[in-house]
From TrEMBL:
GO terms for molecular function: acyltransferase activity. It is an enzyme of class 2 (transferase). Keywords: Acyltransferase, Transferase. The keyword Transferase applies. SUPFAM superfamilies: Acyl-CoA N-acyltransferases (Nat) (SSF55729). It comes from Lysobacter koreensis. Its EC number is 2.3.1.-. This is GNAT family N-acetyltransferase.
């Protein structure tokens, strides 16, 4: 477990790091190459407008140099919202999860998850947390199950549109 983690809201200056991590995550999980300009613009738009997305970053507090605590980014996730008429409330979707290899299996995602779960439970109208995971990503699935999440039994279908010129 990571002994000294602090969760903070992403700021505009985090855009490049979050874009780098998104590119790495897309390659590691789906062997997809993301366009750096597009992902950078998308993250910037999400950081600027919490109605689009909310990004959280886990900071590893490394110790004290003089009187300043040295911290490094250890992982991230993004939240989006989905209205549920069935429940008359919002599902919060956990997306864009990434923990760099040096910080994996140390409780970084668990800390991020606990943080957003606490926020969700404190927010009126939130009915739960959801995420989607690649079918073959067994390690991630074990992590989610260990935190009490369960397979909801859905498959995701999509119809992606080509970018407009």
């Amino acid at each position: 477990m990571h002994p000294n983690l602090r969760i903070r809201v992403a700021q505009p200056g985090d855009r490049d790091l979050l874009a780098q991590w998104a590119i790495a995550m897309a390659w590691e999980t789906e062997h997809k190459r993301l366009d750096p300009a597009t992902i950078g613009a998308g993250i910037a738009a999400g950081i600027a407008d919490p109605n689009k997305a909310r990004y959280f970053i886990a900071m590893s507090e490394l110790g004290v140099a003089g009187r300043e605590t040295i911290a490094s980014a250890a992982g991230t996730l993004m939240l989006t919202r989905e209205w549920s008429d069935w429940r008359c409330g919002e599902w919060w979707w956990i997306q864009s999860v990434y923990v760099p290899e040096a910080h994996r299996r140390q409780g970084v995602f668990a800390a991020l998850y606990r943080h957003v779960k606490q926020l969700a439970r404190a927010t009126t109208g939130v009915v739960g947390l959801r995420l989607y995971v690649e079918r073959d990503n067994a390690a991630a699935q074990r992590s989610y199950e260990a935190l009490g999440m369960r397979d909801a039994g859905y498959r995701i279908f999509e119809s992606e549109f080509a970018p407009r010129e």
